[in-house]
Write the C-alpha cells for this entry.
Amino acid sequence: MKAEIIQVLASFVGSFGFAVLYNLRGKKLYMAGISGMVSWIAYLIVWNEMPSTFVANLAAAAVATIYAETMARILKTPVTVFLITGIIPLVPGGNLYYTMNYVLAKQWHLFYLYGQKTLLIAVAVAAGIMTASSVYGICASVWKYCKKEI
C-alpha cells in the first residue's frame, strides 16, 4: 500500500511539472496535476484486478480522457492541456530507453521484447484516448440534443 501511495504522489508531481511547462496558473495548474494522479489511480485499480499491461493502460487513458474533457468544459480550457498532463504517467519512457539501448548494443532478442511492450503501451494509450473521446463526444451531443428538446 505504501508503494502505491508513493506512485500516486509521484504521478501528481510529474503531471504538475508538465503543467508548469505549459504555463498554467492557479486552479488549472492543480487540476492538471490531479489529471495525472487520476489516470495512475485508474491504472493501479485495473492492474490489481486484471494484470494486463494493455488493458490497464487502455483504461487509464480512457479515464484521463474523460477527466480532461470534463475539466476542459468546466474550466474553459483546451482539452489537450489536461489530456497531455494526464497521460504523462502512462508514457513508456523507461521501456523506450531500454528498447533503444538494446538496438545500440545489438541485443536483438531484448530489443524485440522491450520494443513489443513499448509499442503495446503506446497503442493502448492511443486507443483509450480515441475511444473515450469518441464516446464522450457522442454523449455530449445526445445530452445537448435532449436538453434542447425539453
Remarks:
- The mean pLDDT is 94.
- The chain is about 85% helix and 0% strand.
- The CA atoms of residues 1 and 7 lie 10 Å apart.
